[in-house]
Amino acid sequence: MTEGRKRVAILISGRGTNMARLIEAAEDPNYPAEIAGVISDVADAPGLVYAADKGIGAAAIPRDAFASRQAHDDAIDAALQVLGADIVCLAGYMRILTASFVESWQGRMINIHPALLPSFKGLDTHRRALEAGVRIHGCTVHFVTAEMDGGPIIAQSAVPVLPNDSEAELAARVLKAEHELYPLALGLVAEGKATMENGRTVLSGLGASPRDGNARLFSPAPWSEELDFEALARFTP
C-alpha cells in the first residue's frame, strides 16, 4: 500500500454495489484510501462474499445477536478500532446508528444517499421524486450526523428525470451516478480536501476548473489534478 493512504472501513447491509466501486477505486495505488475491511449487520449479505473474493477482510456482526442497538454499535466500533479505520463509509447500511457512535466518528464517517439532499430524505426516494414531478434527481455524499440524511453535503451528482421514467429506470440511472460519485467524494475526504468544520463541509485544494459537459453533473466537479478526471468523464447519464 502507498504510504499515507487513509484506512477505510465500509459498513453494508446487502449487495454492496457502492462498496464494490470503492474497492475498485482503491485498487489504484494512487488513490488516497485503502479498504481496511467490510462489516455487515446482516450475516448473509452478498457484499461480504464480493469483499472476501477481493481479498478484503469481511465480517458479519448481526444486529439480532445483541440485546440493544447500543451494544451492537459498540461491537461495530470495537471492530473498527481493530481495523485501524480512519474513515467509515456507509454503503447501503440500513440501520440507524446510535448518537454516541455517530458522535465518536463525526467528521470521519460518510454516507451516500440516492437523492439530491435536502430533498427526499429517508426511503423510497425514486418513487417520491417521480410523484413530485421533479426534472432533476441524483445522489449525495454527506458527512453523517445524528440527523438522518441531514449531515453536511460533500458532493452531489445530478441525473435527468426523463418523460415516462419508471421507478426502476430512474433508480438505475441514479445508481450509475452513485458509483462515480462515491469514490470521488471519499477521495476528497481522504486527501483532506473535504472536511467537516462547525457543522459545515469545507472544500479546499480542488484546483482549476475546465469546462466539460460531464463535469457539470458533479458538485464539486472533479477538477483536482490528483483526481482521475478522465475516468469520471466516462460517466454519461
Automatic annotation (TrEMBL):
Domain of life: Bacteria
Record keywords: Purine biosynthesis, Transferase
Keyword Transferase in record: yes
Residues the entry annotates as binding (6R)-10-formyltetrahydrofolate: R69, M94, R95, I96, L97, N111
Pathway involvement of the protein, from the record: Purine metabolism; IMP biosynthesis via de novo pathway; N(2)-formyl-N(1)-(5-phospho-D-ribosyl)glycinamide from N(1)-(5-phospho-D-ribosyl)glycinamide (10-formyl THF route): step 1/1
A Pfam family reported for this protein in Swiss-Prot or TrEMBL: Formyl_trans_N
Residues the record marks as site: Raises pKa of active site His: D149
Enzyme class, broadest EC rank: transferase
Binding site for N(1)-(5-phospho-beta-D-ribosyl)glycinamide: G16, T17, N18
InterPro entries assigned to the protein according to its UniProt record, in alphabetical order: Formyl_transf_N, Formyl_transf_N_sf, GART, GART_AS
Active site: H113
EC numbers for this chain: 2.1.2.2
Transmembrane segments: none
UniProt catalytic activity: N(1)-(5-phospho-beta-D-ribosyl)glycinamide + (6R)-10-formyltetrahydrofolate = N(2)-formyl-N(1)-(5-phospho-beta-D-ribosyl)glycinamide + (6S)-5,6,7,8-tetrahydrofolate + H(+)
UniProt GO molecular function: phosphoribosylglycinamide formyltransferase activity
Stretches assigned to the Formyl transferase N-terminal domain: 6-186
Protein family membership: Belongs to the GART family.
Entry function: Catalyzes the transfer of a formyl group from 10-formyltetrahydrofolate to 5-phospho-ribosyl-glycinamide (GAR), producing 5-phospho-ribosyl-N-formylglycinamide (FGAR) and tetrahydrofolate.
PANTHER family (alphabetical): PHOSPHORIBOSYLGLYCINAMIDE FORMYLTRANSFERASE
Protein's UniProt name: Phosphoribosylglycinamide formyltransferase
